[in-house]
Write a structure and sequence with these properties.
alpha/beta, three-stranded mixed beta sheet, single chain, 9 strands, 2 domains, six-stranded mixed beta sheet
């Protein structure tokens, strides 16, 4: 059975960065900080993924800002100029997943800020026949338990993604119940990827998202303001509408290194949400990886 790991790094031009609040430890925009630290840590982030792939005996592919990406980006900038470069990059990583499915039976995607800290094979631990391997982020929806009319979250927040997917599902006659998904780590078989039909009727999906951003009276304006064009919102929507099985990654195989500046023993994959790679590298070296 053919297996592969891949990652993606697009150095978004300064003038195309979307303005986001700083990380809790920082003073500049998240987008700017990400751009800086990815450049500073590029070689290490690439090397650890390549090393892990070699250790478990699978192919590794690294994708960057090349002609294929430029052509993909141009489609969006022409057809959907309102979609940010950040969102285009995240659609592109799903696009690459489908491309690789033409060659491989099982594929593991790792965001560029994900660091494997194990020599154990992801493919041996997770049974890809049981469903797409994803992380469930439902616990971070409206963590302060505010009334809906008081929500003021970023379009990138789990809260925004939950209500956006809910609105899409309601509009198409489905139950609004959905799961907030993080696609920083995705393990999938080519069969389940085909069942997902992520890009089937894709332009209609984006048009639906645009329509919902105008408001339809079902949601208050503060919630509508959170609606966007997020790859994870569409992932949740497609999983529900196409009834695709999912298996949820545990916190060992997708450890969110974010607000709590602590990495527990036994984790397998660290997703450095907070971009504090200095702490992650110390953990990596301490464990002789």
């Amino acid at each position: 059975m053919n297996k592969a790991i891949y990652s993606l790094y697009i150095d978004i031009p300064e003038h195309e960065l979307d303005n986001q609040k700083p990380y809790f430890w920082d003073y500049i925009s998240k987008s700017q900080r990400t751009k800086l630290v990815f450049k500073e840590n590029y070689k290490k982030l690439l090397d650890v993924k390549n090393t892990y792939s070699q250790q478990i005996g699978v192919d590794f592919h690294m994708f960057e800002y090349d002609e294929n990406y430029k052509q993909y980006e141009q489609f969006f900038k022409t057809k959907y100029p309102q979609i940010t470069t950040y969102n285009i990059v995240n659609f592109y990583k799903i696009h690459l997943l489908y491309n690789l499915a033409n060659q491989y039976d099982q594929i593991l995607y790792l965001d560029f800020d994900v660091i494997p800290v194990t020599k154990e094979s992801f493919f041996d631990v997770w049974d890809f026949s049981k469903g797409i391997c994803l992380y469930n982020n439902n616990d971070n929806v409206n963590r302060r338990k505010l009334p809906v009319h008081m929500l003021q979250n970023s379009v990138r927040s789990p809260t925004a993604k939950y209500y956006n997917a809910q609105a899409m599902l309601h509009h198409q006659g489905f139950s609004g119940q959905n799961d907030v998904i993080n696609t920083g780590i995705v393990g999938v078989s080519n069969q389940h990827l085909a069942d997902l039909k992520y890009f089937d009727n894709f332009e209609q999906t984006l048009d639906l998202m645009s329509e919902l951003r105008q408001g339809d009276g079902m949601y208050p304006p503060n919630v509508v303001n959170m609606f966007g064009y997020d790859n994870e919102t569409i992932m949740s929507y497609k999983i529900k509408t196409n009834n695709v099985p999912v298996q949820w990654l545990d916190t060992y195989w997708h450890h969110f290194y974010d607000v709590e500046m602590y990495i527990p023993n036994g984790v397998k994959m660290i997703h450095a949400i907070n971009k504090r790679f200095d702490f992650v590298w110390r953990y990596y070296e301490k464990n002789n990886l």
